[in-house]
Structures are given as C-alpha cells and as structure tokens.
Amino acid sequence: MRRFYSKLLLFGEYTIIKGSSALAIPYERYSGSWTFDGKNSLSNEILKKWCEFLSHSDNEIGVDIDAFRQDISNGLQFNSNIPQGYGVGSSGALVAALLHEYVTKNKDIYNEKKDVFFLKNAFKILEVFFHGKGSGTDPLVCYLNQPILFEASGKIQKINSFNLQSNDKNKTCFLINTLIPRKTEPLVKVFLEKCKNESFNLACKNELAIHNNNAIDALIQNNNIDFFKAIHLISALQYEQFQPMIPNKIKSIWKNGLNSNHYQLKLCGAGGGGFVLGFSSDWQKTKTELSDFDLQVVFNL
C-alpha cells in the first residue's frame, strides 16, 4: 500500500493568523501506511473509534464506512514512524491515507484532478476527530507529496520548482529534536493571549509576517542572500517575542546562532517542544557547535 510522508511547516507558524503566507513541505524521513501487521502501528482501537465517529457524521466526503469497518475488524492498523506531538503531521498522514484507500465518492476529483480546494475541504472534515477543528493543510501536503504554498489571499499553490536538494551541502535546512512532545492548542492560546498586547500584535503583523513572506519568496526563488537575511530577522524576533514557545534547553543555542551567524533557529509549527527548525550557512561549523543535539538534515539550500 502507498506510504504517506510526514510534513514540515517551514514558514507561517502563527503569522498566518496575522495575514502572512505559509509554506509546507513533505518530509520523507517519516511516513506511514496501512497494514495488517501490528508492529509499530497505530492502535486498532483508535481506528475503531474514528470509524464510529465517521459513521455518525455527515458522510458527504464519501468514506466507505463498511469497508473501513471490515478491515478494522480484520486487524487493520496504520504502520507509522511519524512521531506524535512533534508537529510533523502524524494525524495528517493518517487522514491522507484514509481518503486514498477508503473514499469512493468523487474519486476522480481526489485522485485525478487533485483540486486542492476540494481536497483541503475534505481533509478539514476528516481530521475533526483528531483536532476538534481541522484546517486540512497537513493532510493536503501529505496526500499531494509536494511543497504547498498557502497564500494570504487564500490561494493554494503547488510548488513544482522548489529546489529541495541543491549542490551546496554547506547551506542546510535542519531539525533539532528537543525530545519533548507537545500539544498545539495550549500554545495557540498563549499566542492569542499575547496578541492582546498591542506591541506584540503589531510586531507579528507588521514585522514577523513580512519577514516570513520575504523568506518564502527568497527560498522559492533560490535566493540565498535574501533568504538568510530574512531568516536572521525571523529568528531574532521570535527569540525576543516568543519566549514561552522556545524550550528552555534550546534558548542558549538559539542566542548563540544569532551571535555567530553560522545558523539561525526558528519555531517549527507551534513550538514548545517537538522539533526546532534551523537554517545553516556553514553546516560544518554548525554541526560542531550543536554536537550535543540530535540534528536531522532536511534539505540543502
């Protein structure tokens, strides 16, 4: 069966609420697929609960509930190595897999035309079970398996020209594993509370959102000079304004990166734990400076 990769939100965390664009990419280090072999798999009991939830919902998406329920009774599980509570789309991959395998209505639109708005709306409904309220963005990236730009205007654009593997292996996008699972909802509440402060709200809307958009534009255009300028501004502003979202064990190296300029750190999704995103202009020096941490290379710039 098809494997569905995890996703990374490179840019747009929080600022998308303030009118910025967002850019997400598939991350092939982690993935999941349906299986009847229970090793390292999502509990069959969770799938039972999801199936019952869907069976009592308006089935406008066209889920084949009978087939899903029958396979669950035969031991169906979702075999995944995507870490949960890390913001890399563990539920997004699962929702994408459900649509691929068990949705029969509108199959031509889902699997052939791949209308992004139609898909996003379907995923938004299917992921309600996991989040209470869905956006559909994570499953969309996992399903299409390509970078997706969510523009502030509401336009959704598949990015075909985005270079995820350049020849310059010294300029790198990487992840730091904080080893701290977290939940998104409490962190979003902290952000919304902070937005009641006028100076914080203006910093997000008039500074961070602009730097975010500039970073996205520069990355898509493979303009490393402007990209690293924007990343430095994002990192500095997040360090100043988003302290509650930065794990304590990361704060010193975050500051060191700003000072040395060998690398810059930023939030990966909601922050608070999970992964921290890094962008290095000198990977050899960065690896030495961060030798005490678990680093994962995502792509070369």
Question: Would you mind describing this structure in some detail?
Answer:
45% of the residues lie in helices and 19% in strands. The strands form two sheets. Strands 1, 2, 3, 4, 5 and 6 form a six-stranded antiparallel sheet that branches. It has a four-stranded antiparallel sheet with strand order 8-9-7-10. It has two domains: 4-158, Ribosomal Protein S5, domain 2, CATH 3.30.230.10; 172-300, 2-Layer Sandwich (Alpha-Beta Plaits), CATH 3.30.70. It has helices at residues 44-55, 65-73, 90-102, 107-113, 116-126, 128-131, 137-144, 184-194, 198-220, 224-241, 248-260, 283-289, and strands at residues 4-11, 22-35, 41-42, 77-80, 148-150, 156-158, 172-177, 263-267, 275-280, 295-300. The chain is globular. With 301 residues, the protein is α+β, with helices and mostly antiparallel strands.
First-last Cα distance: 32 Å
Shape: globular
Q: SSE order, as H and E?
A: EEEHHEHHHHHEEEHHHHEEHE
CATH hierarchy: architecture of the largest domain:
2-Layer Sandwich
Largest sheet: 6 strands, antiparallel
CATH topology of the largest domain: Ribosomal Protein S5, domain 2
Radius of gyration: 20 Å
The secondary-structure class comes to alpha+beta
Mean pLDDT: 91
CATH class of the largest domain: Alpha Beta
Number of helices: 12
How many strands appear in the DSSP assignment? 10
Low-confidence region ranges? none
- Which range best describes the helical content: under 10%, 10-25%, 25-40%, 40-55%, 55-70% or over 70%? 40-55%
Number of individual domains: 2
